Known about the structure:
Number of domains: 1
InterPro entries: BP-dependent_transpt_permease, MetI-like, MetI-like_sf, OppC_N
Main location: membrane
Subcellular location: Cell membrane
Strand content: under 5%
Domain ABC transmembrane type-1: 101-301
CATH architecture: Orthogonal Bundle
Largest sheet: none
Keywords: Cell membrane, Membrane, Transmembrane, Transmembrane helix, Transport
Order of helices and strands: HHHHHHHHHHHHHHH
CATH superfamily: MetI-like
Helix content: over 70%
Amino acid sequence: MSSLSTNEIPASRWSRIWNSKMGHSFRGNPVAVVSLAIFLVIAFGAIFAPLIAPFDPYDPGQIDIMNSEYPPIWIEGADPQFLFGTDDQGRDLWSTILYGTRLSLMIGLCAVALQAVLGISIGLLAGYIGGRLDSLLMRLADIQLSFSTLMVAIIFLAVTQAMFGSETFNQYAIYFLIAVIGVAEWPQYARTVRATVLAEKKKEYVDSARVLGFGPMRIMVRHILPNSLSPIFVISTVQVANAIISEASLSFLGLGMPPSQPSLGSLISSGFDYIFSGSWWITAIPGVVLVVLVLVINLLGDWMRDVLNPKLYKG
């Protein structure tokens, strides 16, 4: 009997989610369904790139410069073993896109996780404690927002590259990118969480928690934060797309991932010199993948914003 009850728990939870307001909205929104399906396909290919990709673009033994600039298989002169053709270094473009997408998604998700930790912590403290601490933290956020993410990232990465040298920078480029993109965008979370906390801390359940003797940290983390998750989920989807675009832009400018560890941005950059010489696929195909990835994430973010906002949802 106990095993039967245990097996029924996941099914009942899934049923509640599927029949909830969000599940109903998702089923009735073809754009959200198609966007999620495309995102899952891209994410699946990126996660299992070592199993799916016919070649390893990180292995010099599998790269032959004589295979460079083969066109995709639907163009005359292609080599059947290279589905999307090859780049200027002779790497299989299909394999390189799979590995590059995995790298771009990893940087985007880790950078957003760093943004969330910093922004949520600062927003909780500013909104709950208030006073001079609130004024100080929000002024810091205003100063941070007055500079664009790319400008801060370009300055930081250029100085870092000059200080440590290109070889060391390329070795730790992924960590530098995650750090600079994460730190540059924390005010988005901080301002959103602060506004929610200012509204939530005046409600009766917070007063009850204080009467019971709970400390400020427990009240913020265990009581106020769970009621602030809706806007956090919405902003996270948008920030993941922004982080991927920022990484691609920095890699395109030569301040991101090195050619030996291709991301979507560095792939687009490496083929840009060849786009007018006829080898357009080196830039165009990774560019299409980047646009589709960012588009479906933004569409999912728009749907989530609508369904989690009672003023917009009309289900």
